[in-house]
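Sample A.
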Amino acid sequence: MGKPTGFLEYNRETAKVLPPKVRIANFKEFRTPLNKEKQKLQGARCMACGVPFCQSGMMIGGMASGCPLHNLVPETNDLVFTGNWKQAFLRLNKTHSFPEFTSRVCPALCEAACTCNLNGEPVSTKENERAIIETAYAEGWVVPQPPKVRTGKTIAVIGSGPSGLAAAQQLNRRGHNVTVFERSDRIGGLLRYGIPNMKLEKSVIDRRLKLMEAEGVKFVTNTNVGVDITAEELLKKYDRVILCCGASNPRDIKVPGRDAKGIYFAVDFLKKVTKTLLDSDFTKAPYEEARGKHVLVIGGGDTGNDCVGTSVRLGAKSVTQLEMMPMPPTERAASNPWPEWPKVLKTDYGQEEAIAVFGHDPRVYQTTVTDFIKDKNGNVCQARIVKLKSEKDAKTGRMMMVPVEGTEEVIPADLVLIAAGFLGSQKYVTDAFKVATTARTNVETKPEAYETSVPRVFTAGDMHRGQSLVVWAIREGREAAKAVDESLMGYTNLV
């Protein structure tokens, strides 16, 4: 282990963060990592528990506890403490495809399950992970790993998000010939266009893609499978197909006035901003989208927060973020004990920035929209909102959020961003391959399996499990790769 008394001697310390009013001047990452010596002390805080919940990836209370990839957390933390950075990288590389992504965007399930949470603060494992992979890149340890022998087997991966990239990386290194199809103009899927640049700079993605191309993975962009190329063509040309198209059906708000101009799905808004930045090599941002406008964000999750932070950077006049559910407690409830995921209030970067600029938290809890109001030109200009309360449905016995009479209020809204989550996979893709789907429109497989109802067609990621985290998508991509490899070769040595 690191240092037996490290958790007693050293306080938790994480990356330095630029002040909100400074960082909103651009769309760059705003965290400055600790220096090597300070990072080593963070590794020393790991106790190397007899039962390391941090790497368990168990479902407890309906939520994941610990890393779904089963990263060897105590081992890598110890190696950070002793300064054995190359060995730390080799350990991390055994279980993880893209630590440079998760060390930036993961909510750190490993830290939530850390034993230090029982009476203090968790080990900064996420920061350690970032230090490991960035040191590895800087030292030249992350190099292409092309297979020594090719099997002659061909695989098409549909979708280039984290699950598709993870599956492609593993299967290519196994020796299969892998082609990744992406309907957008750039590779990356959710990583590219769903996550703002200030959370994940796109150069980080490009760095990894160059390695994968050097290893032999082929990427095809601007190709919409099911439209530009048929499922029949792919199944004729490739031995196996893996559907990794994500949960790309955004949940809509069906209220009067929804057809007003100026109302967008969050994912479309975020994509437009990122694409404008990339197309102009970061010389231009689409300030016209939000500058001087009253922005209403519907949805209190990570995507909603990304919309808040993006709108602030684009010069919004005000930002309001609606959340249907009650405000979480500031501390764990007795019914939410460790090592369950802590259901507590989190103020993310976007909300911090809105507080700094506007002087108050943009979030309004237990509130929803009843209708949108248009101006004479058909543009949204206001929204009518109402407070909600929890009430048991007499027929089903389920608790539901219902409107509170007399709490209606009209607020200004020139730009509305719907960040209400996603319903599942898009129908034209599942129809093209004729795969069975669940009631939630996710692609159906047997439990803990990845082959669909159609032979030779597999699935992974959000398209399979529903809207989830990047780390889960990577886990699913790696697991699907194992299943595909075994179906092709009769066995698999992938991990």
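Sample B, a different protein:
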Amino acid sequence: MFEARRLVDKLWSYCNVLRDDGVGTIEYTEQLTYLLFLKMAHERETRSLNPEQIVPPNCSWQRLLDADGDDLEVTYRHILEDLGKQPGTLGVIFRKAQNRIQDPAKLKRLIVDLIDKENWSATGVDIKGDAYEELLSKGAEDIKSGAGQYFTPRPLIQAMVDCVQPTIKDNVVDPAAGTAGFLLAAHDFASKDAEKLTPTQREHLRDTFVHGTELVDGTARLAAMNLLLHGIGTPRGESLIDVKDSLIADPGTRHTVVLSNPPFGRKSSLTMVGADGREAREDREIERQDFSVTTSNKQLNFLQHIATILAINGRAAVVLPDNVLFEGGAGETLRRRLLRDFDLHTMLRLPTGIFYAQGVKANVLFFDKKPAGDRPWTEKLWVYDLRTNRHFTLKQDPLRRHHLDEFVNCYAPGMARSERVESERFNAFSYDELMARDKANLDITWLRDESLEDLDNLPAPEIIAREIVEDLTAALAEFEAVAAALEASSVDA
């Protein structure tokens, strides 16, 4: 870990210098991605044992080392353009890539002093992978850049993976991959006994075990590079990250495990046509006959998409905001379907203050896909409340993995759910109880909020202030969504 920290400090030290030139944290991380890839490709091509050419000769690292001044900037730009036209992983990493470092002297220093002096191929996978993850985390902390929306707290990811327990027999997908945090954690979990795996199993773990889809080019390249640095995929092989909108169509493939945190925000950019025949017009029409309801709510559409791509007896863990639990209309229809046709067995109510997107109240839904049958598959929904009387902040009191230990213990991974035991924060609700609730509302609480009844037990002032800001931010987002809908309806009229 010390070596990873050294690398992070070394690379990040230059970010402040470039920020004065208008290079933000994510842009800087992107430039590091391009240059690190080229340097590691150079190391593979020049190694004495089994040299491997990764990039075309006209895109070599040596060309950057040999160039100076304006010629360096021109050479770098041409290399990025040429690599963006390549297929597979190369094309994903360099798709629409641009040089954001306009000062040739600073670009030269980044190339020569910060990257070329390290032997990245000799650096252990864990070290360079951890270093890159730390860089992404630092980038996510820059609220102004909006990078945090692609970054799920790693302790939460780890806890979700510890519950789902993916194995070498699985194929794992994230339809909203972000920087590939879920895919990395799943791969790490399944690799615990790697020394006992057969060559075929190791190949599956490297090339086909994980797959992700990401809409944003810049985020997709970070995800693809993140996987490569962790030894997942190959530089010239098929990309494990697809750059597209997951919601456009049924991809046809099915996966045994889905782990995801779909993007926050209510509106979809596409018109969805459901099996009920109704349309919600936005920018353009697409038809998803596999969707049971039509809605422009992005989270509900992602939930339907995940229901489609999950294999029979497959298992899913998905982060979803509170509105999915109580929204009427399409939301109610989907909840009733989820309870009837799937085994919705566990829900984790997440505390506030753990996401970079402010004002978010979210939950993790754990459910299994079951074959068609005459009876409802959900017998009990176990709810763990980590929200009531718990307060976290991104800086002063961030969520750590140990804060989720009790939940994971209550979940009892690998054990029959009949062996679960109720506790103060962990309660079970029967299918009949859930269906009898108004609109099948799953926004369930039972703990007494001590801050509302005990003035001596109020949270710290900064926490209260942060929660007020988060509530106002969430309300503003809702008002903006309503205003946008009204504007759209007036235009259609």
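Observation for Sample B: Residues 269-273, 279-286 have pLDDT under 50 and may be disordered.
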